[in-house]
From TrEMBL:
Any GO molecular function: monooxygenase activity
Record flagged with keyword Lyase: no
Required co-factors: FAD
Membrane-spanning segments: none
Organism name: Thermobifida fusca TM51
Protein's recorded name: Monooxygenase
Lineage top rank: taxon: Bacteria
Length: 498
């Protein structure tokens, strides 16, 4: 199939990597701004990003639905206050259709390499299907996209099924099996209650117990849905209420870490109520400052762990010998299937190995000493390159969609600046990026991550938090409202040569 001649690479103004919330959101905003010359390059067969990939039993969001959606695309049909993965995925597909994005989406196009061409002032983007050139490259590849399976000695020789939480094997029936779940993060605490009733034995490898708070989930009533449909302002009001509650709570926790003490009282009571066995309760009691790792929300996790067919191994998985899992505490456990709920490549995101500056240095190489960007979105050395969910834009407890929309404002403003100045490209000045990050890390010193004494995907190998935003989401919104021209170097448009 295909011709033997190599056609010139098609040129588009903007190439976006990824069709999760970031890529879809940018696509909508571009179309609303009258821009149609863009493609969204998607490695999988459909849109949805992390909400397409994570199909594990029990998968749901722990941010209320009214807030975990685009401000420009409210959904009056959310069935619950915290939506499940199928509904969020369906929402993203609906937004894709409603805003006419399908013609822009290129599925099966995994970006293999993107290089800035300093002579042509444009990017060359090689994908598994087509090579494009583009003026502007946006990575919306996401931070929770590439799973980590730890390098466990002997794992290759395990005779049963092994899979990661974000690559669930639905062809494999866990009913009646002995199953190990490795990890006790946000994914594991949803998987465990969902699979516990099915399996003969569930062995949970818990290296670090999580702080778990009650989850105030409930169905959204028909009356509410009717109200949201007929008087859209009521849904806006509900959204604003959820936003302000979360914002003030999280803001207060970040600013006044002493308040976390009060929250630990609630979490301990939650544990005490659900787990009667003092030995199990001791195992499940965290020993680090709350908030250092993501605070988890669940009402069914502790009850599931208390069931007689569950063993909690208070230790990491260290080795595999045949079908026996060996914990770091020396205990051994025979199982049929291993589920790794062990998280994602966040501070070492693989896409950074595929994006090269004009001198042939990768973004990963630029980030050898830690990820950094200007306002989480642009990077010195990479003209006309934007990151959605870049360094220090993550959140523990409010909606990432709000952060993403802030970044979309910033990107749209940069595009307007290019147009209004007639420039070919813009690149953040080193001084601006350094000053931004110095201020950010200064604020970080006052937060729990500087004092928590825990390992977390929030922190990189140096123990530096390059993933989360340390302030209020409102302050991020203000910081990304529009680009500050003083922070950028402009490249004049090339005069065409005859
Ligand atoms: O991954 P994680 P996740 N032996 O990196 C453990 C979002 N999310 O997929 O803490 C035993 O948080 C590791 O232990 P430790 C959300 O942003 C949201 O659960 O490092 N255990 C940890 O317990 C979240 O933060 C939702 O000691 C081992 C776990 O694996 C992010 O995704 C739902 C181990 C990894 O936890 C990632 O969450 C799901 C070993 N050898 C995800 N190696 C909601 O909105 C690692 N671990 C609800």
């Amino acid at each position: 199939m295909g011709s033997t001649a190599t056609p010139a690479a098609p040129h588009v103004r903007i190439a976006i990597i990824g069709s999760g919330f970031g890529g879809i959101g940018l696509g909508v905003r571009l179309r609303q701004a009258g821009q149609t010359d863009f493609v969204i390059l998607e490695r999988a067969g459909d849109v949805g990003g992390t909400w397409r990939d994570n199909t594990y039993p029990g998968c749901a969001c722990d941010v209320p639905s009214h807030l975990y959606s685009f401000s420009f695309a409210p959904n009056p049909h959310w069935p619950r206050s915290f939506s499940g993965q199928p509904h969020i995925r369906a929402y993203l597909e609906d937004v894709t259709d409603r805003f006419g994005l399908r013609p822009h989406i290129r599925t099966g196009h995994e970006v293999v390499e993107a290089r800035w061409d300093p002579a042509q002032l444009r990017w060359t983007v090689r994908t598994t299907a087509t090579t494009y050139t583009c003026d502007i490259l946006v990575s919306a590849a996401g931070a929770l996209a590439d799973p980590v399976i730890p390098d466990i000695p002997g794992l290759d020789g395990f005779p049963g099924q092994v899979f990661h939480s974000s690559r669930w094997n639905h062809d494999h029936d866990l009913a009646g099996e002995r199953v190990a779940v490795i990890g006790t993060g946000a994914s594991a605490i949803q998987i465990i209650p969902a699979v516990q009733p099915l399996v003969q034995r569930l062995v949970v490898f818990q290296r670090t117990p999580a702080w778990v708070m009650p989850r105030a989930d409930r169905p959204i009533t028909r009356l509410e849905q009717w109200l949201f449909r007929t008087i859209p302002a009521t849904q806006k009001l509900a959204r604003a209420g959820v936003y302000l509650t979360r914002e003030s709570m999280v803001g207060a926790f970040v600013r006044y870490p002493a308040l976390l003490q009060a929250a630990t009282v609630v979490a301990r009571a939650h544990l005490r109520r659900a787990v009667r066995d003092p030995e199990l309760r001791a195992k499940l009691t965290p020993d680090y400052v709350m908030g250092c790792k993501r605070i988890l929300l669940s009402n069914d996790y502790y009850p599931a762990l208390s069931r007689p067919n569950v063993d909690v191994v208070a230790s990491g998985l260290q080795e595999v010998r045949g079908s026996t899992l060996v914990a770091a505490d020396g205990t051994t456990h025979d199982v049929d299937t291993v589920v790794f709920a062990t998280g994602f490549h966040v501070t070492d995101m693989p896409i950074a190995n595929r994006i090269y500056d004009g001198a042939g240095r990768s973004l990963a190489d630029h980030w050898r000493d830690g990820m950094s960007a200007l306002r989480g979105t642009t990077v010195t050395g990479f003209p006309n390159f934007f990151l959605i969910v870049g360094p220090n834009t993550g959140l523990g407890h409010s909606s990432m969609i709000y952060m993403i929309e802030s970044q979309l404002n910033y990107i749209l403003s940069a595009l307007r600046h290019l147009d209004s100045t007639g420039s070919a490209a813009l690149e953040p000045r080193r001084s601006a990026q350094d000053a931004w990050n110095a201020r950010l890390q200064q604020r970080m010193r006052r937060t729990v991550w500087a004092r928590g004494g825990c390992a977390s995907w929030y922190l990189d190998a140096r123990g530096c938090n390059t993933t989360l935003w340390p302030g209020s989401t409102l302050s991020f919104r203000a910081a990304t409202r529009r680009i500050d021209p003083a922070e950028y170097h402009l490249f004049p448009a090339r005069t065409p040569t005859a």
